[in-house]
Amino acid sequence: ILDSEEYLMSRDIQIVFLGSGRQDLQDRLYDMECRNRDKVRAWIGYSDQMAHRITAACDILLMPSRYEPCGLNQLYAMHYGTVPVVHAVGGLRDTVLHYDGENEGTGWTFERAEVDKFQWALGQALYSFWDHRDSFMGVALRGMHKDLGWDHAAYMYECKLLEAKYAH
């Protein structure tokens, strides 16, 4: 995201960062915030309550994780109607279905952790948000209605096990 500052700031968007990490990245976030006070806020640290408030208030969640074994933030986002844009890795690949223009997806994904791939996926989401609001709202609603409960997950797991058992 930090390497996309020029791209992001040229769009009619506002960004809120939440989290903590390497000091050099935190410093870059603060610098980005200082340069773009009307568009960027950085909340360094973590508060579960604040994370839920921010996620619920956003239209789009950006999650360009390089590694994500499970990931819960995209699930919270979908529950709130916040559309995820994620790097299709680990649990993100399993939980966010790429919107393909045929009204079946629950967000936008990109396959390679590269700046241009991230920008493409975000660009698709923003295009839908600004120019095809009905389609964007459909993506948000599908995320909200997605069955994320354990009963469904257990059923899908059982189906995969049976499929593996009877495959030749």
Automatic annotation (TrEMBL):
Gene3D superfamilies: Glycogen Phosphorylase B. Keywords: Glycosyltransferase, Transferase. It holds the Pfam family Glycos_transf_1. Residues 11-126 form the Glycosyl transferase family domain. The keyword Cell membrane does not apply. GO terms for molecular function: glycosyltransferase activity. PANTHER family: GRANULE-BOUND STARCH SYNTHASE 1, CHLOROPLASTIC/AMYLOPLASTIC, STARCH SYNTHASE 2, CHLOROPLASTIC_AMYLOPLASTIC. This is Glycosyl transferase family 1 domain-containing protein. It comes from Pycnococcus provasolii.
